[in-house]
Amino acid sequence: MPPHDPTLTACLQPTGPLRPTFCNVPEWAQVTLYVAGLLAIGIFAYGIYRHWRVWMAGQPGAPARNTGRWGERAGLVARYVLGQSKTLERRYAGLFHTGILWGFILLFIGTALATIDWDVFRLFFATRLLGGPFYLGYEAVLDTAGLVFTVGLLLAIWRRYVTAPHHVLGAWDFVIWSLVVVNVTGFVVEGLRLAIAPVAWGGYSWVGQGLANLVFAFGGAEFIQGPARSLHLWLWLLHAAAAPRRRWCSSRRSRSPTRCTWSRCRPTPSSRTSSPSEPGPRSSRSTSRTPSSSACRGSAS
Ligand code: HEM
What we know:
58% of the residues lie in helices and 0% in strands.
């Protein structure tokens, strides 16, 4: 490794296990990440505002059915959201759905902890959160969660394109594929990082270390210190940029946010190519993919 390269200094962990933030990532890319992050927060806040307007458009005198009863409502969240008891009634769909959900929850917590570690603990307390045994456990849990997430996505894709039961429609394809890209690039970035700057505790990042071993086996030292570093950086950028987006219900058709609800993104009965009682794969998926056959006609954001 070239000794004076500042971008590689961030990869080194000379005092023991410590999350290597911005390893092989130059300053311009770091600034881009923060600017894009602020932009994403702005768009997110605008989305919340649009939903808030929909909620506020309700009848002022309507009974408040969904307030109070905190214990009961928390129980429903635990059972149906976290426990996925409804989706698990269909074993295959429930299994991949639970994997995707929990993979996402754990990776979300992991990404949030990484931000807190770097932008709060380091900056304000001059210490680090993701170091030592806690960091090693963090790596092992996140690699496992990422793999479960990826397998869940692949099972979902198999169902959508191969077994294709009549009630599975293609409106969310972009989200699924972008999540696959994010997960796969995440692992490859980790694997390349462990190849460029190996550490004795790499085995805790067991999926990434497996990929790094492949790089050691098939790429020489020249590849690792040359093309592998460029690949690491470009995949890092792709990984950060491929954040999934949901279908954006266009406000061009109507200025009213009440016309942009989740229900508009559900299929209309006419979009089905076979009757609901018909089991097995659809004969053709093309009809269900035309914009006019879906209740959501907005452009993808
Ligand atoms: C939908 C959101 C995201 C998902 C599903 C996701 C998924 C993953 C997965 C599966 C890995 C490999 C396992 C691991 O090290 O945790 C990973 C690694 C990584 N992710 Fe993400 N990620 C997301 C968002 C982000 C964002 C916004 C960033 C900021 C740039 C980021 C930066 C990284 C980095 C730098 C690595 C490599 C870590 C290493 O070298 O050990 N991720 N991601």
